[in-house]
Amino acid sequence: MADRREPPSPSTDEDSDREDLFTDNGKKVKQAPSDENRTSAKSLIEEKISPDSGCETGTVESFVGDSEVRSKELREVGSFLAEPPRLASSAKDGSNGDEAAAAAAASLNAEDDPANVIEILVSDPKRVGDGMNAYVVYKVTTRTNVKFFRSCEMSVSRRFSDFLGLHEKLVEIHQCRGRVVPQPPEKNVLGMTKVKMTKDETSSLDFVEKRRAALERFLNRIARHPDLREDRYFIDFLEVDDDLPKSSTTSALSSAGIARLFGKVGESINKMAFAMSEPDQWFEDKQEQIEALDRELKQLHASLEILVIHRRELSLNIGQFAKSIAVLGSAEENMALSKALSSLAEIETKVEQLTADQADTDFYVLSELVKDYISLIQSVKDTLNERVKLYRVWKDDETTLAKKREAKAKLEQQRKMDKVDQADQEISEWEEKVTKSQESFEEISRNIRKELAFFERQKARDFKATVVNYLQTMMNHQQQLATYWESFVPEAKLIA
């Protein structure tokens, strides 16, 4: 095996801020659907592994969800109903939109390289412990041919707080540099309380499956980011099958969590108090577009949620109708009519199943993608806010420098020459600070340009793939529905 290439090492003053995995007295409970049960929904994409990667020639499995399966089957599949977003590259910086778009396109082509594959599957959720101390552990399996990993295939166990700890570290290191860090699924106290307290695992299976799929998409988005994928915290998350350092900030009720909440409130107040005079019209236009996209996606997601609810209610009503028709057929004395009604009841039962399948497609194919992009847009906003912070630092430094120069001029007017040298030294220090803060602002602006250019390209790619998938599934459902009713026509004609 080739020597592992160490990725760039970030500053590590808070190695202790990572979440632990297990309690020693944890016990495993009945397993959720295993990998073997998911083969009906896997699409195996064979990619030859580069010999230079240190791995033997073989294949890399890409886990792709099958949108045409029933809800029970959907709980057993991989989360990729459409390819997860792949974010921007740190390729050569461009100072305008065309250069940023070119860099993003080059990054996209690089990530399509079969010698640069990282595929991650989150599976086998298991409840560990009892009562309110219980938690769910997930199996994270990685298949890759990238050189800086220790092996071609790895499996580790991680709990939800570990994913939150990973996100926290990536934001801390990369967001201030203008990189968009994907967000993990939100905490759900009510849903997790049901998982902890209920003894019937089937009642909480839907919640656990939704979270599992969201965690899988979260990791794969990071894996497709050319900078985040090389972060050593991310690599350790996938490779080190051991307890991760504890984090005091992943609990919403911890002192650090409360401090984080107050920090966010303070940032919101600062945003309202500080009005940035945008020096770049491109960024002003992009911010307006992002706000508009956020509003439209939230409205679309709300409509999709209503659609899913109505379609599931329709499925239940069709089922009740089928039962009523079956009872009526059993009571009918006319044999031909009785047989036709029984056949109609059977077809309506099939239509009930088909309608439920369509409701699952509405949710797992469309609704989840829209929800993911809503959270991704929030990450974009957070990154843009980092640029505003650096702009404010730059302007504050300029203001301080101007005051230092005014103070020196007054000293010269007052002929206090003994203090002029000290004033000159302070001016030199603040000139250096202004230069550095301006360079930081310009650097994050370049990085964000590339991130947003790549985001736009990937968004179009993801939605195209998802809409095509959704339409094909609907066409298949409608064709199946037509087949059901065509088979009933001869039965109806036999009624005398």
Secondary-structure map:
Blueprint: H1 71-74, H2 97-111, E1 118-128, E2 135-144, E3 153-159, H3 160-174, H4 189-197, H5 201-223, H6 232-239, H7 255-273, H8 281-331, H9 335-413, H10 417-493
Antiparallel strand pairs: 1-2, 2-3
Helix pairs in contact: 2-10, 4-5, 8-9, 9-10
Tally of contiguous helical segments:
10
Query: What kind of sheet is the major sheet?
Result: 3 strands, antiparallel
Overall 3D geometry?
elongated
Q: Tell me how many strands there are.
A: 3
Q: Which residue ranges are poorly predicted, with pLDDT under 50 across at least 5 consecutive positions?
A: 1-5, 8-53, 56-95
What does this structure look like?
- This protein is mostly helical.
- 60% of the residues lie in helices and 6% in strands.
- It has helices at 71-74, 97-111, 160-174, 189-197, 201-223, 232-239, 255-273, 281-331, 335-413, 417-493; strands at residues 118-128, 135-144, 153-159.
- A three-stranded antiparallel sheet has the order 1-2-3.
- A hairpin with an 8-residue loop joins strand 2 (135-144) and strand 3 (153-159).
- Residues 1-5, 8-53 and 56-95 have low confidence and may be disordered.
Short description, anyone?
This protein is mainly alpha-helical and 496 residues long. It has helices at 71-74, 97-111, 160-174, 189-197, 201-223, 232-239, 255-273, 281-331, 335-413, 417-493; strands spanning 118-128, 135-144, 153-159. The protein contains ten helices and three strands, in the order ααβββαααααααα.
Features of the shown structure:
about 60% helix, three-stranded antiparallel beta sheet, 10 helices, mainly alpha, disordered N terminus, about 500 residues
